[in-house]
Amino acid sequence: MGRQDGCSRGKGGSMHFYKKDAGFYGGHGIVGAQVPLGCGLAFAQKYKKEESVTFAMYGDGAANQGQLFEALNMAALWDLPAILVCENNHYGMGTAEWRAAKSPSYYKRGDYVPGLKVDGMDAFAVKQACKFAKEHALKNGPILKTVVESYAGKYISSFKALTNGGDPAILEMDTYRYHGHSMSDPGSTYRTRDEISGVRQERDPIERIRKLILAHDIATEKELKDIEKQARKEVDEAIAKAKESPMPDESELFTNVYRKGYGVESFGADRKELRSQTGKNSDLTLLITQSLKQSPTHLIGHAVLYGANNMLAFYWSLIEDWSDNS
Amino acid sequence: MLGVIRQKFAGAKGVGRLRPVASAMRHYSSGTKEMTVRDALNSALDEEMAADPNVFVMGEEVGEYQGAYKITKGLLDKYGPERVVDTPITEAGFAGIGVGSAYHGLKPVIEFMTFNFSMQAIDHIINSAAKSNYMSAGQINVPIVFRGPNGPAAGVGAQHSQCYGAWYGSVPGLKVLVPYSSEDARGLLKAAIRDPDPVVFLENELLYGESFPVSAEALDSSFCLPIGKAKIEREGKDITITAFSKMVGYALKAAEILEKDGISAEIINLRSIRPLDRATINASVRKTNRLVTVEEGFPQHGIGAEICASVVEDSFGYLDAPVERIAGADVPTPYAANLERMAFPQIEDIVRAAKRVCYRSVPLAATA
Question: Does the keyword Oxidoreductase apply (chain B) (predicted)?
Answer without folding.
Answer: yes
